[in-house]
Design brief:
4-stranded parallel β-sheet, alpha/beta, 317 residues, 11 helices, 5-stranded parallel β-sheet
């Protein structure tokens, strides 16, 4: 890590979004994650930091990476873990989200990781429960731990965030990942440009402090990072571009386009990948791709978030 360790103390019970965090709080999470990443290199990949704590993964929306990453992060911190999905909960019987969550809290849950299709669901519970609420993605609002792990990966690979130019390409309109990344990168001093069709990348996003362009080819030689987002068919209620083939021809990272990138430019994708749509399959597997590094770093970042929210303090050892 190139930056000096943060001297900030974490006082938040919850992590609902990046928008409300200060730059120092973001740096504290990144510094804490760097310390926890070393746990994964040990013969015994476990520390007692959350021994005696109970974490419930409450995923109302399907997820593989995020749910598994939080689960493993909690295991590595020695917490007890329970996984609950919408189909296995009383939500299917008509119970409200609040009542289900209060029942989980009554079982002495210390931390609830919530993924929900409605924006604001995590904030709703954070205001009503004494347990720590971690937002595992809420609608098209925020996905804070994905942005933190993306930023951690950029800093790890390029040594800094300030002054870098990051292009976020694709389905911005429906992307909680994009919103959290925009907040994180701008707070740490990066320049952010959003790229995609006018229907998925409207100019209104410039009000957040980033730039918008609909010409991918013009920006490729300038950027230090390209972060490609998945086309989220499940969130689109109508077609926002004529065809996947046309989307790829205009906004897909092909081998020809990759030749225009700086040699050190990172290729990122939060997954799951639509190979051949957002990115050429060979590029996704190339040495310039840090997609699997993002997955590895997600574990360290989620350990840091669980530790800080459950302990509400600064990492000292």
């Amino acid at each position: 890590m190139a930056t000096a360790p943060s001297s900030t103390t974490w006082t938040r019970k919850d992590l609902v979004g990046i928008q409300e965090l200060s730059a120092d709080e973001i740096r504290l999470v990144l510094d804490t994650a760097a310390a926890f990443k070393t746990v994964g290199t040990r013969e015994i990949k476990k520390v007692p930091a959350l021994r005696g704590k109970t974490m419930i993964n409450f995923f109302v929306e399907p997820s593989t990476r995020t749910r598994t990453s939080f689960e493993l992060a909690a295991f590595r911190l020695s917490a007890d873990v329970i996984n609950i999905s919408a189909s296995s909960s009383s939500l299917t019987k008509g119970e409200t989200l609040k009542d289900t969550a209060l029942n989980l809290q009554a079982l002495q849950a210390d931390i609830i990781v919530l993924r929900h299709s409605s924006a604001g669901a995590a904030q709703f519970l954070a205001e009503r429960l004494s347990a720590s609420i971690i937002n595992g993605g809420d609608g098209a609002h925020e996905h804070p731990t994905q942005a933190l792990l993306d930023t951690f990966t950029i800093q790890e690979k390029l040594g800094r965030i300030k002054g870098l130019h990051v292009a976020i390409i694709g389905d911005i309109l429906f992307s909680r990942v994009a919103r959290s990344n925009i907040h994180t990168l701008l707070k740490l001093g990066a320049k952010v440009t959003l790229v995609g069709p006018t229907t998925l990348v409207p100019k209104v996003f410039e009000e957040l402090g980033c730039s918008v362009t609909h010409d991918l080819d013009s920006i490729l030689p300038e950027v230090d990072v390209v972060n490609l987002l998945r086309i989220q068919h499940e969130r689109q209620r109508k077609e926002y571009f004529p065809s996947l083939g046309e989307y790829t021809s205009l906004f897909g990272l092909t081998k020809a386009r990759a030749e225009r990138l700086k040699p050190e430019c990172l290729i990122m994708h939060p997954g799951p990948i639509n190979r051949g749509v957002e990115i050429d399959s060979d590029l996704a597997d190339s040495s310039r791709s840090v997609i699997l590094d993002q997955v590895t770093n997600g574990l360290a970042v989620r350990m840091a978030v669980l530790y800080l929210c459950a302990g509400s303090g600064k990492l000292t050892a």
